Amino acid sequence: MSVPFGSVIFHQGQAGDAFYMVQSGRLRVIKHNAEGGSATVGYLYAGDHFGEGALLTGQGHRATVRAVEDSDVLQVPKDQFFKVLKKKRN
Questions:
Q1: How many CA atoms lie within 13 A of 77 on its CB side?
Q2: How, if at all, do strands 64-67 and 8-10 pair?
Q3: What is the pTM of this model?
Q4: Could you tell me which of 18, 26, 43, 81 has the fewest CB atoms within 10 Å of its CB?
Q5: CA distance 62 to 46
């Protein structure tokens, strides 16, 4: 999927619905606190993956991910992600 500058891939607390891998560009990982503040906790670059924590735990995402430049991201839907994991166990 193409992710234009400034676009949010998912928000902190949102349910996980896919696994992601950065193909090009740069993404910012942002943590929000209860007081309404936020802080950048890292960046994601080509080859980095994210989103699996929310899929594996069934809890919401622990951070918001936003594009800081036009980016291309591989998105693997939840059902396909688990299908691949199941094949690897067999």
A1: 2
A2: antiparallel
A3: 0.89
A4: 43
A5: 21
